[in-house]
Amino acid sequence: MVIEEIRVRGTVQGVGFRPTVYRLAKAYDLGGDVCNDGQGVLIHVSGSEEAISEFVAKLQIECPPLAKINELIRTPYIGKLNVDNFVISSSVNSAIKTEIAPDAATCPQCQKEIFDPFSRFYRYPFTNCTHCGPRLSIIRAIPYDRCNTSMSAFTMCSECAKEYHDVENRRFHAQPVACHACGASAWLERADGKTVTASMFSMLDDVDAVCTLLQKGEIVAIKGLGGFHLACDATQETVVQKLRQRKRRYHKPFALMARDIEVIEQYCIVNAKEKELLTSSAAPIVLLQRKELRIETENRYSLNFNIAASVAPGQNHLGFMLPYTPLHHLILRRMNRPIVLTSGNIADEPQCIDNNQVREKLGTIADYFILHNREIINRVDDSVVRVVSEKVQTIRRARGYAPTAISLPPGFDNVPPILAMGSELKNTFCLLGEKKAILSQHLGDLKNYMAFHNYKETLNLYLNLFKHESEIIVIDKHPEYLSSKLGKEIADRNKIKINPIQHHHAHIAACMAENNIPVNSLPVLGIALDGLGYGEDGTLWGGEFILADYRKFRRLATFKSVAMIGGEQAIYQPWRNTYAQLIAAKLWDDCQQQYTDLEIVKFLKNKPLKLLNQLVEKGINSPPASSVGRLFDAVAAAIGIYRDECSYEGQAAIAMEALIDINILNNDKETLIYPFKFSFSDSIYCIDPRPMWQALLHDLQQQIPQAFIAAKFHKGLANAIVEMAKRLCQENLIYQVALTGGVFQNCILLEQVTKPLQTLGIEVLTHSLVPANDGGLSLGQAVITAAQFRR
């Protein structure tokens, strides 16, 4: 007889892992026990060597749906053991090294039960089991036991307790298990404080009433899994406009939820990969290509999307998700059209998570509230993904994905525990150690006071959950980022090392890490295109070609720096970038002589150009920036897209991508590609857009359509990037190129750059696990520091 100890690390708590161990141990007639502890799951087994080996192999094959084994270590065991029986033992408190499972969408079995009149879970809006339900959103501490979650407020009834302790039941040790008799409850309130009565509308219960309210054109605040949402009928233009005005979110697209795939397919094209994402346990928002529905009227065809125009203005994609909690399933049971389901907040503030908070903050936005009494411990937004060339691209990593650990590439073994603070926009932080990186959920833009407060609260929660004691704090080099300032405070208070990392080096390292590039690999050519990042020379970078490994980098090429007139104002007033580009290219005089009839020229002439020129000449609040993001804004404004004002960064660029003429894009004629100029000085190449502007102004004068110009710009920019990458790869003997930064979330540009590089035999690394935007930056900061300070 052999006796072994088997240590299993990974996402193995609260996901039905111990019952699987128990079932397999019984099947192979093994003795021993299994328990949760701070490192994951600990198994002791006794039996024949062959039986134990088959048990271990089977365990990895039949791992529960939400479980993930990162490491399984077998060692001989010399302690006392019950060899005649196999049991599940109580959790053991020890050093925290385990992982927390993300919140998971309602599994098919639970969905069936909530609609089964003969089930005790019939219409229970908080039904769950070990295969689904809340995890991160309700946890206070590890181990993941009921007493360490917000479910500690609810005592299980005898029926739930019976299932909880039945090892053959899928609710065995499902910590949030509850039912109508013993669990949380949901109720409906009017925002004006008046009483809700059953006679107001036909309803089975308060949850069912929400569907009726949405159909009638009301706005309802729904308390979900990781926060509140604001919901309304997505096909009623008047109510969607009303929601925009009340929420003060005037242009940014709204997310949609539909009852099932069939409803989504009425409005969007859904391929197999996208369907897989929609129906996965993560259940993210998936950006889908919008369908053109044609309705015949008087022998003529007119476009009719049947989705309110103001749901996603200027977009040819819609962000859809499926119901991911029983509450959502019950609300949408009778809803045969999509609903808007957007974050329950005002403008850029974090989602509300508390009932009293929502009454105070959303009372002027929503007409009704559907509330419940299960506390949300951890605010978690919806994740956003899209599929580009059959590969998943994460845009916002949150519910369903966080805080799943990201395994580090080979060579990151002996590294100190590291805390990386991230950036400023779309921020996350990262805890690194023990061969893995734990990235927080999306935490928003830290310039908003409430978002920064939430960032600090979430950081403290993670540090406590994972008992992480940082030896190094990593920050972005930008001196004014709030995350950098907070990182310095933490480092000073704890007397530990601080390590500033250049913004674009971090972007590239994040891309390398998620593509499993080993720590001692040869450098890659990183192409980092974004809005801006603090450069090594004190200027703002945003269009960089960088030779980089994990420890160091060297800038090889850049786009020509152009003033951001008015600083941050240039992000939200695209015309400022157009004027800056024209004066930098020395084309403004031509505009006043040859192109006086152009709308953009007339528009700019009405601006205080003398003052703007002085700002640029004297360097007052007009920092030079090589930002490709601002170049996109400049072109969009020139052709008449969101010329005057934008309500969010990148709005003009996104709208320009959406209107591209695909026929022009797929035409190989050289005349349909805008030219860019290359130069070389001071050991660095520079890409100058002056020839592009000359050609674009000519096209505007010829009244070439916006869609043609947008396509020619994308083709020309992609061509310039590919040509520069080809030159740099040849000169530096590089065979790998990493594409990163928020600009590469433009799927047209990403594809137009990726395919030609691959044709040249270059391996192209792109993002999938973490966003290309600043949401993935903290991972890059962490791995750079880990490589620099390996023990």
How would you describe this structure to a colleague?
The chain is of the alpha/beta class and 791 residues long. It folds into four domains: 2-88, Alpha-Beta Plaits, CATH 3.30.70.100; 186-372, Alpha-Beta Complex (DHBP synthase), CATH 3.90.870.40; 393-517 and 774-788, Nucleotidyltransferase, domain 5 (2-Layer Sandwich); 526-765, Nucleotidyltransferase, domain 5. The chain has 25 helices and 33 strands. The strands form six sheets. Strands 6, 7, 8, 9, 10, 11, 14, 15, 16, 17 and 18 form an eleven-stranded mixed β-sheet that branches. Strands 30-31-27-26-25-32-33 form a seven-stranded mixed β-sheet, with helices on both faces. The longest helix has 27 residues, at 706-732. The chain is globular, with a radius of gyration of 28 Å. Mean pLDDT is 94; it is low at 294-305.
Rg on CA atoms, Å = 28 Å
Kindly report the CATH topology of the largest domain. Nucleotidyltransferase, domain 5
- Termini separation (Å)? 41 Å
Supply the CATH superfamily name of the largest domain.
ATPase, nucleotide binding domain
Please specify the SSE layout and strand pairing.
Layout: E1 2-11, H1 17-27, E2 31-37, E3 40-47, H2 49-61, E4 68-76, E5 86-88, H3 108-114, H4 158-164, E6 186-190, H5 206-215, E7 220-223, E8 228-233, H6 237-247, E9 256-257, H7 261-265, E10 268-269, H8 272-278, E11 285-290, E12 294-297, E13 300-303, E14 317-321, H9 326-332, E15 339-343, H10 355-361, E16 368-372, E17 384-388, E18 391-396, E19 406-407, E20 418-420, E21 430-433, E22 436-439, H11 449-465, E23 472-476, H12 482-494, E24 497-501, H13 503-514, E25 524-534, E26 540-548, E27 553-559, E28 562-563, H14 569-572, H15 575-584, H16 588-594, H17 599-605, H18 609-618, E29 624-625, H19 628-638, H20 651-658, H21 662-665, E30 677-681, E31 684-688, H22 690-701, H23 706-732, E32 736-740, H24 747-759, E33 763-765, H25 777-788
Parallel strand pairs: 2-5, 7-16, 9-14, 11-17, 20-23, 23-24, 25-32, 27-31, 32-33
Antiparallel strand pairs: 1-3, 1-4, 2-3, 6-16, 7-8, 8-15, 9-15, 10-11, 11-14, 12-13, 17-18, 19-22, 20-21, 21-22, 25-26, 26-27, 28-29, 30-31
Helix pairs in contact: 1-2, 5-9, 13-25, 15-19, 19-20, 23-24
